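ugh ok so i messed up the first submission bc i forgot one of the chains. this is the corrected input, ALL of the components this time, i swear. 493 residues overall. if the numbers dont match what u have on ur side tell me asap before i send this to the collaborators (the ones from the other lab, u know who)
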Amino acid sequence: MASYSTNEFRGGLKVLLDGDPCIILENEFVKPGKGQAFNRVKLRNLMTNRQWERTFKSGESLEAADVVDLEMEYLYTDGEFWHFMKTDGSFEQYPADAKAVSDALKWLKEQDVYTVTLYNGAPLTVTPPNFVELEVVDTDPGMKGDTAQGGTKPATLSTGAVVNVPLFITIGEVLKVDTRSGEYVSRVKSS
Amino acid sequence: MAWVRGFFARRGVMEVETPVLGRYGVTDSNIDSIPASPAPVAAGFAEAWLQTSPEYHMKRLLAAGAGPIYQVARVFRDGESGRRHNPEFSLLEWYRPGFTDTDLMAEVSELVCGWLGCEAPRMMRYRDVFLRFAGVDPFLATDSELAARCEQWLAPGQVQAFSRDDCLDLLMGCQVEPALASAGPVFVTGYPESQAALARVSEQDGLRQAHRFELYVQGVELCNGYWELTDWEEQQQRFAADNQARASAGKPEMPVDKAFLAALQAGVPDCAGVALGLDRLLMLKLGLDDLAGVIAFPADRA
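and heres the new structure output, hopefully the right one now
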């Protein structure tokens, strides 16, 4: 297995620490006077999402983590696993468990493409695109003349996600939603 | 640079130049020279090193009777790169025959604070900055007490591979230096004997302390100075000890600079000397906190 020395540490590098895959966020070189050099490193544990701070003697190394991000199309769920397929034409499929899908669950739409992070070949996390387009399946009827007031109401989308939308939105419309904040962005013009 | 040259011209200190590419590197266990391999010319040498400091050559000039001298030198230290480090940087180094560390600190203060316009530095002993900011006595604490202090920054078990000086350096870098950032300019003096480098050592308050000083401004280490060791036999022993430390850290041993030892043997006058990082000084003058702002082409774009 490849390993990285402290002088190769960069933001974004994936390494193994205490047996867990981590991504390096920051790496600060500290060296007092004529003394020993250290690297103060901030990492995020990809299993727990917790942030860690660790100090290493410069020149120490960490094993590289076999972590890759791939674009994959969501196919279906069998209730236990959510199945994704590579978009490179290989039709290779990967089952992601509930832990990997986690918060992405409410944005999953069949045939849309997601970023699946593989660790040792198995899905570790699923990240939705920043924006998704989903159909409204339930909301209170819209009221004419309320467009200028700027009020909002909850709307349920086809994936089960509930977002606050302007009062003029009606069932059947397709909305653009920001998955990071869970907020309504705009209506999508039906073509 | 105009400030620096004017400062020394008024004080009758002569500007000198010494080789950037030298026959010997340094033995310091924590400073790595960058090797070069020039073609062996007549009476030359096939193995050479980019200098990490002009110190040995300047001391050879002192031994030859140069009197007070200064130099702005380009120096190289392998593997040092970060917000406050670049593998290649400018060092202002000067030597004052007849000065003690106390005399030289006064001169450093005039040069640095005169240019930055900051207040004169306070004096704090290495022991006192540790007691105050790290809550531990760097001279009297046991090895295991020091190790226990370090554990908060490390993985379990990692500290077992640390020497006493490694622990002190970790505390210095992670706890003391950040605390000094808000303490105003400070001269740290009286280093442990194990960190004397090229400074003479004497007993003060019942403890063996090195006549070494460092100036911190806003937590940035600006310079490192000594009341110089002029005893060639002790110097030879320190070189040997350095190489032992290198070997136990898994680093290659470095050949000892024989010309420098010969100069000490012939007699370097009693003097104090100091090396100051000009890039860091400029960084402070401009109110920046990253050397990338003052070096046109840092290492990653060199």
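quick check: The first helix of chain A runs from residue 98 to 101. that seems consistent at least. The radius of gyration of chain A is 22 Å.
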